[in-house]
User: What shape does this take?
Amino acid sequence: MSESFDGSTDGHTPASDVPDHVKRTAVDLIAAYTDRDREELDGLVPHASDDADAVMSELKVIAAFLSRRVQQTGVVWKPADSREAVARMVAEMLPPELEFAVSTAWEAHSVGEEEAAERLTQGDPMVYVHMLAAFGAAIGLAVYKRAELLSVLRQVTGLVE
Assistant: This one.
């Protein structure tokens, strides 16, 4: 069984039995945003769509981990920083209508307006997938260099390097 960081005193607890391909897709989506590689992102979308709910769930775990890391390192990261960073990450990476949906849904989400965020996604889990992957890339780069970020995320998700 793999392990995942949870912020407890020992640093690890057993992770859920998330399939490796789901974990890999989540980390690869963050990598595509980190590298601003639209072609890579386009290639990952069908895999993410096949397991959208599981990928979204894994991205939420990663986002929570990275949010804790930002707090632990003392990097200042406010909701406005989050909104701007996600908007920058999705700019030119997504078709305009999806870019708008992701940016506006993340804006609502970042200030705790979950009902508004849900309406803005129109029930499309891929909007959440893009939101969380772009956020993971943005907040991850606030704490780590690119190679270190991806290595840490592979370790956190239990993927073998």
Summary: The first helix runs from residue 20 to 35. Strands lie at 3-4, 13-14. The two ends are 16 Å apart (CA to CA).
